[in-house]
Amino acid sequence: MSDAPTTLPSDVDAAAAEAANPPQTTISCSRGLASWLAMQGVSFGLTSYQSGRLYLIGHQDGDVVSFHERVFNRAMGVAADSQRIFLADLFQIWRLENILGPGQMIDQFDANYVPRNAQTTGDLDAHEIGIDRDGRVIFVNTKYSCLATPSVTHSFKPIWKPHFISRLAPEDRCHLNGLAMSDGAPKYVTAVCKSDIINGWRDRRAEGGCIIDVASNEFVTQKLSMPHSPRLHDGRLWVLNSGHGELCTVDEASGALTTVAFLPGFLRGLAFHGRFAFVGLSLPRDGSFSGLALDAALEKRDADPWCGVLIVDTQTGDIVEWIRFEGEIRELFDVFVLPGVKTPMALGMLDPMIRTMITIEDWDEADRPQPVTG
């Protein structure tokens, strides 16, 4: 045996090796996903800040799942419908427009979302997005612990902050993260806690997570663990109690919590189509996601955590379909539904087609310059 000391690779060496040879991603899905999407007349999308991607999932003829991805650095919150996608990334908020009309196709795709505008905000750690009744973008400005809207001349314009936040500062004090819209206005937000010091939420992850009524500034509940993605749907308030891995409803008057389903992962991203909930799952990571009740819940069920999207029947709590990622993609942020779209695609800024895919809006005689008379 040699007396030479054994040298173990350092963390730096391991990181360099992983950067040179990034892990591959394996994507699997439930056998019935394509036919289920076809039957529901819907497709869906998701974002991952960890991989810096926007993903669009649809279906093709022959029960084939369509999967399309585009690069958006630190892709985060999304507000979307069949014609338009708003997307927050590292320092911008993008507007992507579907350039295809009814019956139009590009290859097998019946929707093509093209970037048409980017509002530069700077790195605000923007989380979820909503669109108000006037078409204005409202976003959760997590770094400054407030709700904000883009400004024509500045990085942002604050429009609301929790009553316990004493001043706007780039300190992510309470980890404000989720936004529920109602009738074109912000209704509820979620925060990890009510801390008013820099990164104070990191010591309050296990309990004290809150839902706040924006209009009244009152707490609906303070009994959650790392809540995310509040939504109003079918007359009920929904939330992801992420530290417990639970999809829940919340009584708006009493704050009472009802668990609809336990899902095996750190939950973030929630969208609805009828009675079905699309829920995003991430792998728990050391630090922010560790030491939560979710760890014990997974151990109790002898289960490993997932990264992917589970489609839940909210009437029964059953998982009806799923898509799962293994490898490079470990964390998701938002999930959204595209009703009436079969096979969506998007253009990214790194796609050569961004330069050549030129479309012309219909001519309008009213826009023709008129001669000056008199």
UniProtKB/TrEMBL annotation:
Transmembrane segments: none annotated. It comes from the Bacteria. InterPro entries: CHP03032 (IPR017481), Quino_amine_DH_bsu (IPR011044). Residues 33-347 form the Conserved hypothetical protein CHP03032 domain. NCBIfam families: TIGR03032 family protein (TIGR03032). This is Conserved hypothetical protein CHP03032 domain-containing protein.
